[in-house]
Amino acid sequence: MDAKPILQLVGVRKTFGSFAAVDGIDLDIREGEFLTIVGPSGSGKTTLLRMLAGMEAPSEGVLSLRGVRINDTPSSERPTCLVFQSLALFPHMTVGANIEFPLKAKGVAAAARRERALALLDLVRLPRSYYGKNVMQCSGGERQRVAIARALAHDPEILFFDEPLSALDYKLRKVMEKELKDLHRASGKTFVYITHSLEEAMVMSDRIGVMQSGRLVQVGAPEEIYSRPATRFVSEFMGEVNVIEARRAGGVWRAEGIGELAITLPPELEAADAVAVVVRPEFLRFVEGTGDADNRLSGEVFNEYALGSRIQYQVRAGARTFLLELSRAKAWRGEPGAPAVIGWDARDAIVVPLA
Ligand code: ATP
To answer: Domain containing 334 — which CATH number?
Structure first.
C-alpha cells in the first residue's frame, strides 16, 4: 500500500514534568490503513493516541492532518472519533437513539437518522430489531458494536480505538477481531488501534508499530514484525522465544553453555562480534536418529503444556532451557524425562543486535 499519509507525526514528544511519556515519534499514518500500536504497559500508547485524537497537545514536534498542522486543534474540530474500552454509551437510551445521537446533534431529520442507524446496524452485524432495544439489555459484545456504530455515525475520517476489546471474554474477542477487520474493509476508513495484545494486532492490522519507553522501535506489516524483528525487544514482545547470546572469536560463533553455533547473519550484522540469536519455539524441532539440523543439542524433556491445538515442551539442553512447540497432530511421543535431541536450522533463527 503506498497511500499518502492522512496523519503525520514529526518529532512528537509528550512530557509530564521531566518524564517523556512519548519521546520523539516520526510516523506517517496512511489513508485507509489499519494501524495498530502495541507495546507493554506504560510504553506510551495511550498518550500517543490521546494526542492523535486531540485530547492532549504534543509538548514538542508537529502533528498534521493532510498537511495541515493540528497540534492544538481540539478533538471536536477533528474528523476523528475515539472508541474506548469503557464504552460511554447512554444507558437510558435505546440502541437506535445511541447510534443516532451524533446525527441528531447535526440536525439530521428523524427519518434519515433512522435509515442511517439501520444501515450502521447492518454494518456492525447487529439485527435491525435491536434498534428499539435498550442498550443495557445488550451483551458486552453487542454494546461494543453499538459503540462502534455510534462512532461511525459521526462519519469520521479516522477512528481511534483504545483497547476496545479488553473487557470481553476470549471467545468473543476472537470474533470481534475478525469483525473489526471486516468492518475496516467495508467502511474504508483509517483505523488506528492500540492494544497490549499481539494476537489482536497480528489478526487485524495492515501495519503494526511497536512502542518501547515512549519510542516507536519498529513499524511494519505483521509478517515483517514477526519474521524480521529489528531488535531483541521486538522479537520478545512478539511471542515466547528462545534467545541465545552468541560471540564470535577466531571466526567461530559460540554461546555459553551450548558451544559452537551455526548462524546466518543478516547483511547489517555481518561485521558484528556479538549477537542475540532468536529461535521461535515453532522452529525448534526434535531431531530423531539420523535427522539433520544445522544446530543440534542433546537434552531432556522435562515439561509439556497443552496450548489448545499446539503443545509446548520445555527441554533442558546444554545448561539451559528451551521452548519447543509442535502441533498436536505431530506431538512428541516420548516420556517426560526422556533424552531428546533438539535442533534448528540457521536460516530459521532471527539474528538481532545483542543490546
Ligand atoms: P497501558 O498499556 O498500561 O495503558 P500505555 O502504553 O498506554 O500503558 P501511557 O498510559 O501512555 O502508557 O503512559 C505512559 C507513561 O506516561 C506512564 O509511565 C504513565 O504513568 C505516564 N503518564 C501518562 N499520563 C500521565 C499524566 N497525565 N501525568 C503524568 N504521567 C503520565
So the answer is: 2.40.50.100
- Would you give the distance in Å from CA 50 to the centre of its chain? 18
User: What kind and span of H or E run contains 170?
Assistant: helix 170-187
Helix (H, G, I), strand (E, B) or coil at 278: strand
CA of 42 relative to ligand 1 center, distance in Å:
5
What range does the domain containing 161 cover? Answer: 5-234
Is 248:273 a contact under the CB 8 Å cutoff?
yes
Looking from the CA of residue 21, the nearest atom of ligand 1 is 16
* Per-residue cell: 199: 494476537
Q: Please give the Cα distance from 323 to 240 (Å, whole number).
A: 8
Per-residue confidence (pLDDT) for residue 308, from 0 to 100: 83
* Same domain, residue pair 289 and 149: no
Instruction: Name the residue type at position 73.
Output: T
Instruction: Say if residues 199 and 212 touch (Cβ distance below 8 Å).
Output: no
HSE, CB side, 13 Å, CA atoms: give it for residue 232.
Answer: 12
Sign of CA dihedral 65, 67, 70, 74: negative
Q: Which of 13, 38, 45 should be mutated for ligand 1, with most atoms under 8 A from CB?
A: 45
Measured distance CA(114)–CA(4) in Å, rounded: 35
Based on the fold, state whether residues 193 and 304 are members of the same structural domain.
Answer: no
- Listed residue (284, 262, 270, 264) closest to 330, CA to CA: 284
Closest protein CA for atom 30 of ligand 1: 16
For residues 155 and 179, is the Cβ–Cβ distance under 8 A? Answer: no
The predicted-structure confidence for 45-90, as pLDDT tens digits, reads as follows: 999 999 999 999 999 999 999 999 999 999 889 999 888 765 678 8
Residue 310: CA count within 13 A, CB half-sphere: 8
